Every structure is written in C-alpha cells, then in structure tokens.
C-alpha cells in the first residue's frame, strides 16, 4: 500500500483520530491544569489563561476535554470492539451451522432486542457494582445484538456461495470457513457498521453518564461534560458545545477512515467485484 | 431497396474509474458498419466482450452502463437517430425499434400481467387503441405458438415457463408493429430442447410480420438458422461480414473458420469398461420438503474414464452430483467408491474419502473466494491434505500452474484479475491439488465462449491422460458428450433414460427423449431447423 493512494478525506480522519489518541495517551503532560482542579470563576469565556474557558464549577475546560478523551475513547472503543467480536462470532456461527443453533441464537437475540436498550442498561447497571469494566461489558453485550443481526444477514449471503461449499467438500472445519472464507467477504458492510456503532457507543456512554450511571464524577468524560454545562446554554454560554463538538468531530473522523477502508476492501483487486 | 437501418463507422467508448487511478477511456467498438433491409435478419456473432450487445443497443441510440456512442452514424430510414436528442429518441424506442433481452425472467415486471406488459408500448406511443392492441397481442400469441393464446395474457410472469416467457417477450417487441427488433441472445439461457421451439417461433413470427431484426448470439449454429447475413465481431471490430451461406460454407478469416469448426474433436471411447471406480446403485434422493428429485438411478464409471451425464435443466443431473459428494444424502440406494461403500452424508466421510472426490463448478467466479490469491486457492488443498508448507507448497503450486498451462506470474493474482477461462483453469488446479481419483465436473464449460471452452475440454483430456483421473461430466451439450465421453447417461425428470458406452447410447434405435435431445442440438448447417421440426417424434417438455 502506498501512502499517496490514501485520499485526502482519510488523511483528515487519521489526523483527527491521532490527535484524540495523543490527548488520551499524554493527558497529564499536555493538559495545562489538573482534571479536577477548580482554577477560576465559573463559566469564564474563552481566551486569556483558559483557552476554552471554564466549566460550571470553574474547572479548565481544555484540560477536562483532554482528560475526558481518555475515558471516552477507551470505553467506547473497548465496548465496540468487544461487541463486534461477540456479535460476529455468534452470528457467523449461526449462519454457517444453521438449523437448531441458528434458531437458538437468533431467537435469543430477538429476545434481547425486544427489551429497550436504555432501560435494560439502567436496570443492569443499577444492580451491578459501578466499575468501569462492567460498564464496558454491558454496553458491549447490548450493542452486540445489533451486530448479530447484520452479521448473520451478510454471512448468510456468503455462506451459500459455491466456494464455501467447496471448502466444506474439502472437509474444512467451521472456524476455517468462518475466518478464512466468510469474514474477508463481509468486511465492507461490517466496517461501515463499526464506524456507526463507535459513534453510537460514545453517545450511549454520554447518555448513561448524563443519567448518572456511566462515568462517575469528578472524572471527566465528554458526554458528562455536556451534561454538566448544559444549563449554561440558557445564558448564552457555549461551554457545553465544546465537548459536544469533540464528540461530533471524533465520530466524523472515524467514519472518514472507515469509508476509505471500505473502498479498499471492496475494490476490484481482491474484491468481490460488485461489492 | 433502401436500407432500413444503416450503421456507418460506429464508434463506442466507455470511461472507467478504477479506484485511485485517473479515469480511463476504453474503446469498445470501432469502425463497424452494416446495413439491414426491410424484412431481413442480420446475425451479430462474437464471444463475450466482442461488443455485439453494445452494437445492438446502438440501433436504439442507447449506451449501457456508461458506454457512449462517440462516432459514426446510425441511420434509420435515412435519418440519423444519434442526433435526435432525448425526446426524439423516445419516438423511436419501443415504437419503431424494439428490444428482446436475454433473460426474459428478469426483464418482465413480476407484479403485472403478461398481457398488460405486452401491449404497454403500443398504448404509450398511441399507435393502437386498447382493443386493437389486445387483438394484435392475441394474434402474436398464436403466431408464436403459445398455449391457450386467449387466456395467456392473464397470467403473471412466474406462471409460465422460461421458453414461454421468452416468446411473450418477442410478442411484446412485435406488438407495436416495429420496423426493427434487436434480439439479444434470446435463447442462450434456455435448454436445447426449448431453444429449438423458441427459435422456430421467432423465425416464424419474423417472416409473418415482415419485420427486420438484429439477432445477437455467440452460437454460430443458432444464427445460421435464422439470419440472412452474418457479421462476425471480435474485440469490437468487424472480422467478417457476409451472407449466411458464405460465412458458414466458405469463411474467409481464420477466426471465423475456428468458430465454424469448433468442437470437431472427437474421442474414441475406451474399450475396456470393466474396472469400476464409482458405482451408483438404485439411488433415490429428494429435498426436505418431500419433493423427490431422483428416482432409482443406477450407473457406474470405470477408472480413468469419463462418464457424461446429459439432460435439460430439472433433470436431476446436478442433484446426482450433490448426492455423490454427500452434500445431499440419498434416501435409498448406495454409492460404492473403489470397492468400498461411501458414507451417505458429508460429515460421515473421512478426510481421505473427501480428498479422492473433488468438484469443479459451472461458475468459477463464485466457486473461488474472491479475497484469496491464486496461490492461496490452489495451495490450501495441498497444505490441508498433504501438510506441505512454505517453499514445498509453493513449488507444488507452480507445478500445478504449469499443468493447467498458466505461468508463475499468476501466483499472486486475485480471481477478479483473471479471465473466465483462466478462472476455470485455476478451479481445475485446485481440484487437481488434492490428487483426486474422481473429479465431478458440473457444466464447467457452459458459461464460457466456445473457443475458450474447447481449450478447457482439451486441458481436461490432457490431465486425464497424465494422471488417470476419472470424470463425471455433467452437461446439457451433446457436442461435448461426443467429444469427451466414454460412457453416457441420459437423464430426464429425475429418471435415467439411457445408460451405456457412448457408441451404444448415441446410435439408433433411440427412445423418444434421446431422439429429441440429439436432434435439438443446433448444427452448422443451413435449413437444419426446418428439417428437425418435421422429423422429431416428441415435443419438448419445457415449451
């Protein structure tokens, strides 16, 4: 792969993601103030000592944004990756095996999807201890039902192709068929879904934080920051829009990169031609 | 007599947009000229990619999928239709020039009745009133020999057979009384026994209505029956253009000669047919819904020889292959391989039993994983069955590529970067990699152009000599059977009609079905169609 073959839009996406990751990794060194330090008056305007102003408790907004990148990206990414691994493994197994296994998985999935996600998450998180990994797992499991749906649909399409039949005739096991024959041919739609789901994960995390079941204060996360500062909007204070913009920016960047990857995986060379 | 359609120096170009590269302009058709007089039929013939459909559509001033007519003239009754503009063209399409597509099943709207679709163009162009159009449709249904012409129009597309649908489409094209019809491979998707009826119907209808036609096909024998003139095309250029008689009987160009003489290879059948490798005894099979596809089928195949299974679609020949592979366990009967009974289902067979029976599919495109390189595709059976890796595996892959007459440079290509014939060769190499004793070939050449198909058949024969592999060769093409088989099984509606050595099966006395099948194969001979229609003993089933 040549670097020059990467389109401009993908570079924008890569730059955005790199910036966010850089902030997340080196937060303590680049943030001008501490995450939890009250450093000034509340809702100070942008400029001066505080590049983006201060929040509802007088904490530096830029510093919180940089620290918030850590939790937001880590939790959303972990939840999305786990949900995809889980959803794809189960859906591909269902599609390849068929029959009883398929029915069992699919009906159980329907059952899970019948319960409203947010209410389900609220109940589970209220009962379980408030730890980060439990939050990630709950988000992942709930999201994986959606991945299962689309994964099964695309895998069924590929599973009836003759090259899969040829692999069966050769005597290949289920794991070879799933990972070597089907997975490479379903990457494009799944990548597209990944970009979308990642953005949804950030929003879902924000929702949970907003309701007090996500990231616990005073730790910063972008969704929580929107909640903290939302009252300021009434007074014409833009503090809530900054973390909101960060969420939107990251989601767009991820999708720009995914779009490019999708084009690559569906290109004619090594592609399914019409995919 | 003035020309109805006159095409002069036609040039058609298309622009493609490969990802990451600047757009490229490809010339599809260059410097093609021809004339069609009123009531005459011109046959356009060539392999895929020769530009024959593209040229056919130019008579409607239409370029498909980004193709644009960039040069030349298309004169219809002396007027250049390329300069008419969008509204002007509309007065011609479906009115003066009509089009019959290859796949009638895909070209009809399944939500509307056939009758309404047949007369739609005539009503839209206000050529006829509804009662007039319905009267003409009825007349055309009769001319085309459709069953129950009075009520045929009330049916929906899924309620009639493929051959009937193709004739309904011809009726649709003829309904507005056009001056010219473009037939784009109208019989290619049909069985031979159905093809002959459709062909006869089309020919009759053209004569009856005095309509001119462009008849596009890749089968020279078919076009010889129906056209007055023939134009042979290759790579978008004219190879030869002349009367049908001259092209068939005295072709000037090498390429035309190759097309005319294709499949002249004949093989002597093996004398000794006693050393049995595969034995199918009283096999019956069906699908889960209780529909029985195979009824008490028995046949056997000697070592190192070829058994051809012929029949039209729905005869159960592909199902038989699925039964042999174990994908569809038989309900009754047993299959013995090399003296040992094979477990019925795929899951019950050992790795070695799987290795000894390999399969080649009709569509090489879908039979190979598009995300794997040639190296991976051929290499997998080698590492799977023989545990070879690294340099040893590559060495064996090279050896196989050599055997299928393709070189090292194909090692790291993807299937999308190969031509149809090359893909099928790679599929053959994949089957060979397992060093099998039996290869099931499910119509491996029917999706290929005649010259490419001949190459594949020769390759298969060469490999049989080298490795003594046996073939079960499923086909609907009697010419192929003549060329390669040692023994032949004729199947019809899930039953075995005839089985034995080739010389016995393909020589009289015939049963009625074999007679029909043999006589339906188009021959490169003028007047063949009329001769067959008067001498055959049985109507084809699918009409």
From TrEMBL, chain A:
One of its GO terms (biological process) is transmembrane transport. Pfam families: BPD_transp_1. Its main location: membrane. Residues 69-258 form the ABC transmembrane type-1 domain. The keyword Membrane applies. GO terms for cellular component: plasma membrane. It is found in: Cell membrane. The chain crosses the membrane at residues 6-27, 73-101, 113-142, 194-213, 233-258. Keywords: Cell membrane, Membrane, Transmembrane, Transmembrane helix, Transport. The keyword Nucleus does not apply. It is a multi-pass membrane protein. Belongs to the binding-protein-dependent transport system permease family. This is Peptide/nickel transport system permease protein. It comes from Rhizobium giardinii.
From TrEMBL, chain B:
The keyword Chloroplast does not apply. It is a peripheral membrane protein. Its main location: membrane. It is found in: Cell inner membrane. Keywords: ATP-binding, Nucleotide-binding, Transport. Pfam families: ABC_tran, oligo_HPY. SMART domains: AAA. One of its GO terms (molecular function) is ATP binding. GO terms for biological process: peptide transport; transmembrane transport. One of its GO terms (cellular component) is plasma membrane. It comes from the Bacteria. Residues 10-260, 278-518 form the ABC transporter domain. PANTHER family: TRANSPORT ATP-BINDING PROTEIN. Belongs to the ABC transporter superfamily. This is Peptide/nickel transport system ATP-binding protein. The lineage of its organism: Bacteria, Pseudomonadati, Pseudomonadota, Alphaproteobacteria, Hyphomicrobiales.
């Amino acid at each position: 792969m040549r670097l020059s073959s990467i389109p401009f839009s993908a570079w924008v996406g890569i730059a955005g993601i790199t910036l966010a990751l850089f902030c997340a990794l080196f937060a303590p060194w680049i943030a001008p103030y501490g995450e939890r330090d009250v450093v000034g008056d509340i809702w100070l305007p942008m400029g001066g000592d505080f590049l983006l102003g201060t929040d509802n408790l007088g904490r530096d907004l830029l510093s919180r944004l940089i620290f918030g990148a850590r939790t937001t990206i880590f939790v959303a990414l972990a939840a999305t990756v786990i949900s995809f691994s889980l959803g794809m493994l189960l859906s591909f197994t269902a599609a390849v095996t068929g029959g009883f296994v398929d029915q069992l998985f699919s009906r159980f999935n329907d059952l899970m999807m019948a319960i409203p996600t947010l209410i389900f998450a609220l109940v589970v998180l209220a009962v379980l201890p408030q730890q980060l990994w439990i939050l990630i797992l709950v988000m992942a499991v709930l999201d994986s039902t959606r991945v299962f749906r689309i994964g099964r649909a695309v895998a069924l399409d590929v599973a009836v192709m003759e090259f899969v039949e040829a692999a069966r005739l050769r005597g290949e096991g289920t794991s070879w068929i799933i990972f070597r024959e089907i997975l490479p041919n379903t990457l494009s739609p799944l990548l597209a879904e990944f970009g979308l789901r990642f953005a949804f994960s950030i929003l879902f995390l924000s929702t949970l934080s907003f309701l007090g079941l996500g990231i616990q204060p005073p730790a910063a996360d972008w969704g929580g920051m929107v909640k903290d500062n939302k009252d300021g909007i009434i007074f014409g204070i833009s503090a809530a829009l900054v973390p909101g913009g960060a969420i939107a920016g990251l989601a767009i960047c991820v999708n720009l990169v995914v779009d490019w990857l999708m084009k690559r995986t569906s290109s004619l060379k090594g592609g399914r031609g019409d995919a | 007599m003035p020309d109805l359609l006159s095409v002069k120096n036609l040039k058609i170009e298309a622009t493609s947009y490969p990802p990451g590269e600047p757009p490229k302009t490809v010339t599809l058709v260059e410097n093609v000229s021809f004339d069609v007089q009123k009531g005459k039929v011109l046959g356009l013939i060539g392999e895929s990619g020769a530009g024959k459909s593209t040229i056919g559509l130019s008579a409607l001033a239409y370029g498909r999928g980004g193709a644009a007519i960039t040069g030349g003239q298309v004169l219809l009754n002396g007027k250049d239709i390329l300069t008419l503009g969008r509204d002007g063209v509309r007065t011609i399409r479906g009115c003066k020039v009509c089009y019959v597509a290859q796949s009638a099943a895909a070209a009809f709207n399944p939500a509307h009745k056939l009758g309404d679709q047949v007369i739609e163009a005539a009503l839209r162009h206000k050529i006829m009133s509804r009662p007039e159009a319905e009267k003409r449709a009825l007349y055309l249904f009769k001319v085309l020999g459709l069953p129950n012409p009075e009520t045929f129009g009330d049916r929906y597309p899924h309620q009639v057979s493929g051959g009937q649908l193709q004739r309904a489409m011809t009726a649709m094209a003829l309904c507005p009384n056009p001056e010219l019809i473009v037939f784009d491979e109208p019989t290619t998707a049909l069985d031979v026994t159905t093809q002959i009826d459709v062909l006869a119907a089309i020919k009759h209808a053209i004569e009856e209505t005095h309509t001119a036609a462009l008849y596009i096909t890749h089968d020279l024998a078919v076009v010889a029956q129906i056209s007055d003139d023939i134009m042979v095309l290759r790579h978008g250029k004219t190879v030869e253009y002349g009367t049908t008689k001259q092209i068939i009987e005295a072709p000037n160009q090498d390429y035309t000669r190759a097309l005319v003489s294709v499949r002249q290879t004949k093989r002597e059948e093996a004398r000794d047919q006693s050393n049995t490798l595969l034995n199918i005894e009283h096999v019956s099979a069906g699908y889960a819904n209780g529909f029985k596809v195979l009824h008490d089928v028995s046949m056997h195949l000697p070592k190192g020889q070829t058994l051809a299974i012929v029949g039209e679609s729905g005869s159960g020949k592909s199902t038989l292959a699925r039964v042999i592979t174990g994908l569809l366990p038989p309900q009754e009967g047993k299959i013995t391989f090399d003296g040992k009974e094979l477990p019925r289902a795929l899951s019950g067979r050992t790795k070695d039993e799987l290795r000894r029976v390999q399969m080649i599919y009709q569509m090489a495109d879908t039979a190979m994983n598009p995300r794997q390189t040639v190296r991976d595709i051929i290499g997998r059976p080698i590492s799977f069955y023989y545990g070879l890796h690294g340099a040893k595996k590559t060495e064996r892959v090279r050896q196989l590529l050599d055997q299928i007459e393709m070189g090292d440079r194909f090692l790291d290509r993807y299937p999308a970067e190969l031509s149809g014939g090359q893909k099928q060769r790679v599929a053959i190499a994949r089957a060979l990699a397992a060093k099998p004793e039996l290869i099931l070939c499910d119509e491996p050449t029917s999706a290929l152009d005649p010259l490419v198909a001949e190459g594949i058949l020769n390759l298969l024969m060469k490999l049989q000599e080298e490795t003594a592999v046996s073939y079960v060769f499923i086909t609907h093409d009697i010419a192929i059977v003549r060329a390669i088989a040692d023994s032949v099984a004729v199947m019809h509606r899930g039953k075995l009609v005839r089985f034995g050595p080739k010389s016995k099966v393909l020589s009289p006395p015939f049963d009625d079905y074999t007679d029909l099948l043999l006589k339906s194969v188009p021959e490169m001979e003028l007047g063949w169609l009329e001769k067959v229609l008067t001498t055959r003993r049985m109507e084809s089933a699918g009409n």
